[in-house]
Structure formats: structure tokens, C-alpha cells
Task: structure prediction
Amino acid sequence: MAHGERSDQPRFIVIGAGMAGILAAIKLREAGFDDFTVYEKADRLGGTWRENTYPGIACDVPSHLYSYSFAPNPSWSRQFSPGAEIQAYFEDVARRHGIGTAIRFGEEVTRCAFEDGRWRIQTARGTSDTADFVIAATGVLHHPAIPEIEGLDSFGGAVFHSARWDHGVPLDGARVGVVGTGSSAIQIVSALVDRVASLTLFQRTAQWIMPVNNPAYSDAEKREFARNPAAMEEIRAAVSQAFIQGFANVLVDIESPLLQAIHDACVANLEGSVTDPVLREKLRPTYRAACKRLVMSPDFYQAIQRPNAALITERIERVEPSGVRTADGALRELDVLVLATGFRVDRFVRPMRVVGRDGVELDDVWNGGPSAYLAIAVPDFPNFFMLNGPNGPVGNFSLIDVAEMQVGYILQLVEQVRAGNCSEIGVSRAAMQRFDADRAEAAKSTIWATGCRSWYLDAGGLPTAWPWTFDRFVEEMQRPRLADYDLR
Ligand code: NA7
Result:
């Protein structure tokens, strides 16, 4: 449809029915856009919370903050509620907002191309569809990173990634090995140690652990939340402020005394919790706290000190049919091997093939690593917007809040089209270049650049996360700077 002729009712395709895709659907409808379809490759919504079902899984953002602002949940069982509750929450919100019927399950979008002013998608099943706008809500930590360890295929027991937990494998009384010491591994170790015969943790890099308690909400508290939602609002506001001022904002200021206080708290946790001096030193990281994503755990140090737990810091040489052989020659015999080895964070919307204006391939644009203006838009891909795309604020903040702000921002861009000011809106190359240059400069003085390996870094070692304060992100999301966009 040519500029000026567009009807008031553009059509949208949302890709992914996780937290962000459900949000987009709800907000589109709220804004009066009823013509949309959500394509979801799995047979169930929930994204991360559908895929990660490992024992001990919980979100490391407090539940009353890790909730949609418009759907507080009085039933959260704990300050950091378990993954299954979070999954049930998203299913419930989607049902209550009548989103389910807009989702086409089992439809993986494989190609998305801008042709004649509209986006045309194709799915693995052969479905094709067109829309004026695409909102890609495909997640951040989605594609498991499988380590290249010699002999992995030869293992005689069960082996799986933490995000592909095989619940058919018996764990009680089993000899279990866990590779990795990220948030997933730490939660798994604490949850499993008392169930299994032995738990062997293969650590490549030690982690700083923040001792965060996880109290349960009493029935009386939950009743009060249901009766008086303002009480939940108060918690949300308090936790949000504490996270922003005491954490999110200080990560981008390496001189901050608050960052030092976090470091000191982690040191005190290590020294006050681990009694054996040899084990304590093995668990002591050599980098600054929060350089890697800070692990929150009330009980990991207790778990790793159980008599049936072992911390192995020798390099993994190879996997053999009966277990893991380390560089010191020892064979650790195992029945189950869990790969808690993280995700391929450079993927974002891929492997979907995205083709923009004049045949520009997103794969080519992102050849040197993915980046997106304000984590939302890429030049040459008009009317295509991402939620929690590259360079977003992922520094231990609620990605729900982030996505809500992004949807609000995207809807303001869409408004330009609805108002008849243009039929295509996309970020300009100049704005993208400026954003990238500023981002790279700012990234140098963030905690993530202080010398550690983490999923916050790109292939060149530059932090990819939002390198400014969270407040600045909030400000940017208030209103698009239209001068940064090409309107056609
Ligand atoms: P992470 O935080 O990326 O952790 C992955 C862990 O796996 C980390 O300790 C890695 O060690 C380790 N790893 C990765 N590859 C290997 C190989 N080849 N050999 C040994 N060890 C390896 O992933 P998580 O799933 O725990 O957490 C991801 C996020 O989910 C988390 O930050 C929260 O946001 C929620 P390394 O430290 O690189 O030496």
C-alpha cells in the first residue's frame, strides 16, 4: 500500500510467544491493533521458562519485579519464585488477556523478508504470511552452547544441557556431574546435592556469590496482596529502586563505592561460609564481583561443602564412556553429566533469515557481531523491531520492565505510520553508527570490561550490554527521537 493510502489497521507479526511476545500481543490489542498473529515454534508459550526446567530453577530478579506491571501476582510463593510458577504465570496472563487464540504454535519462522513495502514470513511448515510490521521477540539466552569436549558423544550415561533437562533420567542416588559455574549450574548444584549419591562440579572459572535469601511469602501475606494490590506495588517500587540505584546503575561506573560494597559482601560470604582453606581458595575468583553476571545464592557454599560434593578445578581433558577424565589423569565416574554451559548469545533472531530493504541480509549486517539501535532497530530493516535485542540493558534488571518500555517506544514509531506521516519507519544509518560508537566508548568503563570472560562480551571482548545507566535507558524509551529515523 502506498504512503497516504494505508488503512488505520496495519497488520503485525510477532515472532516468539515468550515473555516479550505475549507482552507485545497484549499491548498491540490495548493500542487498538487487532490484526496480529504470534508465531511460536514450540507447542507451548513461555520461552525461557518453558525451556529451562532444571531442578532449582528460579529467576534471579525478585518475583514482584519480574511480573508485568499490569498483571501483579499475589500468589508468588517466594521472593525469587521457582521457574514452574513463572511459566504458569505467563500462561495465566496470556489466557486472561485472550492471547492464546492469536498464537500459532509449532510454526518456526525461518525467513522474514521486506518485499514491496511489506514483511513476508515463511515458516518451517511452509506457512507464509505478510504484515506491515514485525516484532521479533525471540529472546536473548535461547540457543544452548554445547561445549566442544572430546568424547562427549561416547558417554555411557545420560548427558544433556541445563536448558534441555531430561526428566526421564533418575537422579536419586545417581553420580551426577555438572559442567559450568553460571547461575544455572549454581542453582542445580544446590537443588541436587542432597538427592544424589555424589555431585561433581567441574569449574573452569570461580564465581562471586551474593548471599541473597529467598524467604517464602506466608499465606497471610498472599491474602493481603490479593486484597490490597497496592502492597505489591510498594514491594515492586522498593525492589525496583534498590536494583536500579544499588546495582543496575553502578555496573556502568567502575569507581562506584556501591560496586565495592557488593564485592566486599561477596568476599565476606566466601570467607564466612567456606571453612576448608583449600576449597575456599579454589572458590575465590580472581576478578571483580559483577564482572560476570553476579550469581545470587543463599546456599551454594553450603551445598558444595557437603560430604558427597566435589569441586574439580582441573581442566576437563575428555569425556569417556564411564565419566570425565581431567588433566591430572583422574577419571571421575558418573551416571549423569549436565552441561550448564550457557547460551550462544550472539544469535538473537537467528537462525531465522532476515532480509531487509534491497536484499540486505541481517546475517551480513551482523557479521562483526549483532547490534541494534537502542536494542530495537537496525538500518535497512524498516518496520522491523526487536524486543530485548542486542545491546539492551541485561545487567541484572527485570527484562519485563525493559520489554514494556520497548513496546511503548515501538508503538510510538508505529503511530507515525498510523497517523499517515509515512508508511515505513526505520533507524537511519547515521544514528546507528553514532549509537554504536558511543556504546563502544561507554562500554570501556563498565564493570564487564574489568577483565573476565562472560556472556556480556562480544567476540572482540567488548561488552555488548547497555553501557549506560538504567535511568538513561528509561529516558531514551520515553519518546523516539524521530530525527534518528528515516520516514518514507
Ligand atoms: P553462563 O552464565 O553463561 O555460564 C556458563 C558456564 O559454563 C560458565 O561457568 C562457563 O565457564 C562454563 N563453560 C562454558 N563452556 C565450558 C567448557 N567448554 N568447559 C568448561 N566450562 C564451560 O550460563 P548459565 O546458564 O549459568 O546462565 C545464563 C544466564 O541465565 C544467567 O546469567 C542469568 O541471566 C540467567 P567460564 O565462566 O566461561 O569459564
The pocket of NA7 is lined by residues 60, 141, 147, 162, 179-185, 204-205, 293, 316, 340-342, 453, 455 (CB under 6 Å). The domain at 12-143+344-487 is CATH 3.50.50.60 (FAD/NAD(P)-binding domain). The longest strand covers residues 109-115.
